[in-house]
Amino acid sequence: MPFGRINTRRVGSIRDNRIFKLLFYIKPYLPIIIISVIVTFILSLINIFVANYMKIMTDTVLKGNWSDFIRTVYFLIFIMITGFILKYINRYLIGRFTSGSMCSMRRLFINRIFNMPVSYLESRNTGDIISVFTNDMNKVQSFLQSHLQDLLYQPLAFISAFVYLFTINRPITIISTVVLPLVMFLTNKITGSLEQYAFKLQERLGQSNSILEDVIMGMPIVKSFNLQDLMYDKYRKIIRGVINEGINIEKRRLLIRIFTTVLGLTPYLLFAVYGGYLSLHGYMTAGDMIAFLSLLEYLYAPLTVIPYIASDIKVDMASFTRLFEILDQPVESRDGRRFLLEPNQPVISFNDVYFSYDGQNDVLKGLSFDLPEGHKVGLVGESGSGKSTIFKLICGFYRHQKGQVKIYGHDISEWDIKALRSQISLVSQDTYLFPCTIEENIRYGRPDATREEVIQAAKLANAHDFIVKLPQGYDTVVGERSTNLSGGERQRIAIARAILKDAPILLLDEATSALDSQSETLVQQALERLMKNRTVLMIAHRLSTIRNADEIFVLRDGKIVERGNHDELMERGGLYRQLYLEQFANMPQVT
Ligand SMILES: Nc1ncnc2c1ncn2[C@@H]1O[C@H](COP(=O)(O)OP(=O)(O)OP(=O)(O)O)[C@@H](O)[C@H]1O
User: Fold this and answer.
1) Counting atoms of ligand 1 from 1, which one is nearest the CA of 429?
2) Which molecular-function annotation in GO is an example for this chain (predicted)?
3) Residues 6 or more apart in contact with residue 500 via CB below 8 angstroms
4) Measured distance CA(335)–CA(413) in Å, rounded
5) How far apart are the C-alpha atoms of 93 and 100, rounded to whole Å?
6) Whether residues 503 and 386 fall in one domain
7) What is the mean pLDDT of residues 405-423?
8) Domain ends where: 239, 258, 283?
9) Residues 268 and 391 placed together within one structural domain of the fold
């Protein structure tokens, strides 16, 4: 496939020229567009032929040469039919080129998103990324569909008309094109700020997408807090911005239209005066006059079309910038290797690790610990102390700035990122289920698993019983955010997925949302089965859940300030004991 062969890393050398860069991405389809441009050029030559035969026809009729006249008519019909066929072939070629190229671009975009570091995606607004994929991609499509073709064809059409007219009458041709430098100069002036407006317009479209996404995702909050008016106001302001930028663009387009209309008439006026004079004095035949008049249009059309194309391309360029901003992001490296755990090696080890999200404020400050095989360690600490950040480093979502994060004794940078993640099951507190059947959702743990294996995993996760009671059982499609399932049920499906994956390392971010006691018992049982024979790092919000952990790390401000098992930490009387007592102060029944 064309996409598979594209090596985007080589694009850097032509980084500054966005059109060349785009062409590079779609280079497998370029032969089609080149053929199409050749066909278009032939079509423009046909126009010249038609004008030429009109001239001959007029001259032969005036001379009374009937047989030459009939022969010319036959030629004319033949050429016109050829032009007609070529026109349709050309449309087909452009259609193929555009749809093939867009398919390629879209695949490339999605592939980029899949292979991008999580750190980049977390830093971008989802709505804006979707807007690049939709709105900006549409601009790329219109560029490929018509602007690119025009960009290649119009200069050719102009040159061919110019050359032909020049052979007929040099002075008139030159006089007719005196306006050209003025057209170029004014076009450049008027379109100067278009790209800037177009960029702002696309940015605002991205923002409006984001608001829409926020509103849909957070509808229960929006409604319960009666935020409809506030959100609507926010959206209106952004849309007003979209309209303003759109008006700015259209104003400039209108200016272009006015000046091209005025300037476009100039060649005709000049020709009418000077051509009339030449004709009256016998320097030009009537046929020449007709050929000239019909060909002037081809000389004039590029002059009027080029400013439009220039303005459209400026608008497209803003979208190219936004698109390449994403396509140029470095992807996760796949240069590393897969490693096996050697005897006496810790499964996970952090050695004096420092990490910050913004490159300034350290979130982890010299963190060190080893996790031997099969150990179950609880991570506790106040909100923002860095617990989830540890998970993100282990999964290779972010890279630490100092120290070493090792899995099976090898630094994360040595690992092939896919191989690394195949060793880890991440069960996070916000259980995301994909909008497909329950069976598929579980099977995402191991895509080649059989239905029996899926069912077995669901049984171990205490999910089977509630699944079979659903109207379509395992074939039930869960809602986009699985609103048709309870919190406990969603968690058990996520646990079944992790059981099926059967990875040796389990990172468990315990759900903070309270479940009823029956559901909690089912989830707890499922988790215990999942944890069996695995090395587990578990973020615990309810400290009762890690009482039996081999060790507990107490984090404060990015550092481990206490470690030991529950009894040892309680006895020490430090932060853990304080957190524990605080948590249970008002719940004497939970000890
Ligand atoms: N993607 C991010 N970009 C910038 N800062 C972040 C990001 N994620 C977390 N942080 C910051 O890093 C710090 C540690 O966050 P982290 O999520 O690791 O804490 P936590 O201990 O897991 O908190 P909680 O118990 O509330 O989930 C916090 O100050 C947080 O604001």
Assistant:
1) 27
2) ATPase-coupled lipid transmembrane transporter activity
3) 442, 443, 445, 446, 449, 453, 454, 457
4) 9
5) 10
6) yes
7) 92
8) 283
9) no
pLDDT band at 505 (very low <50, low <70, confident <90, very high): very high
Ligand 1 centre and the CA of 561: distance in Å?
18
Task: Note whether 94 and 145 are within 8 A (CB).
Answer: yes
For residues 444 and 44, give the distance between their C-alpha atoms in angstroms, rounded to a whole number: 56
Per-residue pLDDT tens digits for 269-294:
777 777 778 778 877 777 777 767 77
24 and 147 fall within a common domain:
yes
Minimal CA–CA distance to 304: which of 191, 140, 179?
Answer: 179
- ipTM entry: 0.97
How many angstroms does the Cα of residue 522 sit away from the middle of ligand 1? 29
CA 425 – CA 345 distance, rounded (Å): 20
**498 found inside a domain:** yes
| Co-location of 354 and 461 in the same domain | yes
Ligand 1 centroid – CA 559 distance (Å): 14
224 and 193 housed in the same domain: yes
Question: Can you say how many angstroms the Cα of residue 37 is from the centroid of all Cα atoms in its chain?
Answer: 29
Residues 413, 542 within the same domain: yes
In three-state secondary structure terms, 5 is helix
- Alpha-carbon distance 165 to 174, whole Å? 9
Q: How many angstroms separate the alpha carbon of residue 394 from the centre of ligand 1?
A: 15
pLDDT at 352 over 90: yes
Range of the domain at 393: 348-585
End-to-end C-alpha distance for the chain, whole angstroms: 62
Residue 183 falls inside a structural domain:
yes
Ligand 1 — pocket residues by CB below 6 A? 122, 357, 363, 381, 383-389
Chain centroid to CA 239: 22
Q: How confident is the model at residue 500 (pLDDT cuts 50, 70, 90)?
A: very high
The rounded percent of the chain whose pLDDT value lies above 90 is 25
Total domain count, the chain: 3
- Residues 40, 62, single domain; the answer is yes
Residue nearest to atom 17 of ligand 1 (CA): 388
Weakest-pLDDT range from 42-56, 456-470, 561-575: 42-56
Q: Which of 121, 363, 542 to mutate to test the pocket of ligand 1 (most atoms within 8 A of CB)?
A: 363
Confidence of residue 561 (pLDDT cuts 50, 70, 90): very high
Looking at the fold, whether 159 and 227 belong to one and the same domain comes out as no
Strands 559-564 and 376-381: unpaired
Closest residue CA from atom 9 of ligand 1: 389
